[in-house]
Amino acid sequence: MQALSTSTPVAVIGAGAMGSGIAQVAAQAGHQVFLLDQREGAAEAGRQSIVKQLQRRVDKGRIEQSALDALINRITPVNQLDDLASAGLVIEAIVEDRDIKRSLLTSLEQVCDDDTILATNTSSISVTALGAKMKNPSRLVGMHFFNPAPLMALVEVVKGLATSDAVAQCVYATAAQWGKKPVTATSTPGFIVNRVARPFYAESLRLLQEQTTDSATLDAIMREAGGFRMGAFELTDLIGHDVNYAVTSSVFNSYYQDTRFLPSLVQKDLVDAGRLGRKTGQGFYNYAEGAQKPLPATTEKANSVADTLIVEGDPGPLAPLVKRLAASGLNIIERDGSGRLRFGDAVLALTDGRMATERAAIEACNNLVLLDLAFDYTNTTRLAIAVAGQASEQARIDACALLQKTGLAVSQIADRPGLVVMRTVATLTNEAADAALHGVASIGDIDLAMKAGLNYPEGPLRWSDNLGFSLVHTVLTHLQQSYGEERYRPALLLRQNRFAGKGFYS
Ligand code: NAI
């Protein structure tokens, strides 16, 4: 199906943050755009906010003044629905209220041509439900942009039960022509991104509640070792805790209170206190003028007399770390084994989702020190470790000294199953696998959505494949055993992959 021709006018209803951004995107692509808002002067204000945005780019020499003038001339503020009659695509970005959106959509049906596509930018309302009162719901599709729309590449094209394939395909092709990265999703709560991302916040919040370490250290681990742009606490401070908590609660309630999506009391407390993040000057962090952001906890420099690293068997995902350690001038001895590393008194291993203390007891290896996952062990600047309760102080020192030889900042955290990055990646993968199993979107589109919508360093399903087909399943199984909760039960697809000996992409 072809994209809309740029000679087809596009209408945007609602000239708030999203509507103005979407109008800008459509005008940038060359369409004539009608911008409508029920608040007097709001459409013109929306147009002016676009001028302001783009003027900065003109001032920096990134675009020509003439391009800005031409673009702005393509955007026409209008006052009534009748003015939108010639549009071939109408995108509504009005208030997030089912009944108000429904009423607008039925009114649009009376004004627009029969083949005009009606799109909704809703982030949480069922597209199926929005179409239910329409004469022809097959022409309604979700076109879910992310904020700020001109900058964020992702557009979720959301199909309701009645949405025609041709309409979804046309909107997909049009979004691609506008320079976006579209993905197709069925209309299920949270669509792709707002559903699959829940564990990113939930696991950090739980680790904080369990006093694993402080928020600055958890954020630093997620950023530096996980490769995420921001940790969960700095990100939710930016999004606003009211907004983030509302999305979590909405997904939780929409899935009939499935405990996998359980909101966090830690976050509710912030909402109750009015500590909504940057916008109120206080969230997890203090944004008052002159306030210093706390530094992450870094284990102090350790000294060890050991100079030989014993690598027992295939280190698996730790192989790049072993290479990095070898480059720091250590003697390396390789021998058979199960992937452990030995240095002085320390026995190091990648977390498999069990607490170090539990695994040390089961494997009769008192001096066990578990390493967290890093997105890129070659370049990570920080790594979290957990030390078994039975381990000697010398084992702890040797483990820290070993890692510090490569310049790594070591954050020793309390002994919790799956540490930080590993349990986050495992639970993200789990949610993504469920979404794929339920036909919400394809495996490729889920990964693309998480990368383009949230700047994740890798899609969770590809990431899981890269770790080896069974590791994430093992981590989740152990997390489930530790907590006894449904929240960590491995998704069927992961289980199937594990027994088939293959990954999501193989
Ligand atoms: P906003 O509050 O900034 O703007 C909404 C605009 O719609 C206001 O200017 C309001 O006057 C206008 N409006 C309300 N009812 C109207 C009606 N019946 N007819 C014409 N105009 C009407 O809201 P925002 O943030 O732009 O969100 C708009 C939509 O986009 C919502 O459905 C929201 O869930 C969705 N969305 C929001 C995102 C965000 O980060 N803010 C991200 C993705 C989707």
From TrEMBL:
InterPro entries (alphabetical): 3-OHacyl-CoA_DH_NAD-bd, 3-OHacyl-CoA_DH_PaaH, 3HC_DH_C, 3HCDH_RFF, 6-PGluconate_DH-like_C_sf, 6PGD_dom2, NAD(P)-bd_dom_sf
Domain 3-hydroxyacyl-CoA dehydrogenase NAD binding: residue ranges: 10-185
NAD recorded as keyword: yes
UniProt GO BP: fatty acid metabolic process; phenylacetate catabolic process
SUPFAM superfamilies: 6-phosphogluconate dehydrogenase C-terminal domain-like (SSF48179), NAD(P)-binding Rossmann-fold domains (SSF51735)
GO MF annotations, alphabetized: 3-hydroxybutyryl-CoA dehydrogenase activity; NAD+ binding
Keywords: NAD, Oxidoreductase
Domain 3-hydroxyacyl-CoA dehydrogenase C-terminal stretches: 190-287, 418-496
Protein name: 3-hydroxyacyl-CoA dehydrogenase
Organism: Marinobacter psychrophilus
